[in-house]
Amino acid sequence: MRNIMRATIVTAGLALAVAGGGAAFAANPSPAPSSTSAEQAPAPGEAQAKIQRDAAVKIALDKVPGAQLTEAEFDGDETPTTWEIELRKDSVEHDFEIDATTGAILEHDQETDQETEDDD
Predict the structure, then answer these.
(1) Are 111 and 90 in contact (CB under 8 A)?
(2) What's the pTM value of the predicted model, to 2 decimals?
(3) 73: burial class by Cβ within 10 Å (0-12, 13-18, 19+)?
(4) Which of 52, 56, 65, 88 is most buried, most CB within 10 Å of its CB?
């Protein structure tokens, strides 16, 4: 009788702990991603840029149809302020510098994977 009573208490305690843990988990789900990431927090001056990120990316993609975006970074330290856009199509990396005020392409460099391997 004592063993049955002890087993019942242990089982009830375990069930209560599991239920309590589930309630605690439901009350505090996985933490949201940090907003301190460079991609999420706008760079100084970015909010004032006339050409926003999506427009700068489109300007670059229009020059290299079918390319994939690999990086987009605002540079507010230069005059004029610029967007640095990196695209990849096949084995070619395309680096653009786009004026954040006018949308003009200031620079467009290309580098193939073969050129990178030769530099090593």
Answers:
(1) no
(2) 0.62
(3) middle
(4) 56
Nearest-CA neighbor of 89 among 106, 58, 108, 112?
Answer: 112
Q: Say if residue 18's pLDDT is above 60.
A: no
Q: What are 33's two structure tokens?
A: 């991603």
Give domain limits for the chain. 1-30, 46-119
- Farthest CA pair distance, the chain: 86
Give the span between the Cα atoms of 75 and 85, in whole angstroms: 11
Upper half-sphere CA count for residue 52 (Cβ side, 13 Å): 3
Burial class (CB in 10 A: 0-12, 13-18, 19+), 89: middle
Residue type, 93: E
Angle at 114 between CA 111 and CA 119, to 5 degrees: 80
**Fold held by 46-119:** Nuclear Transport Factor 2; Chain: A, (3.10.450)
* Side chain identity, residue 30: S
- Dump pLDDT digits (tens) for 84-107: 999 999 999 999 999 999 999 999
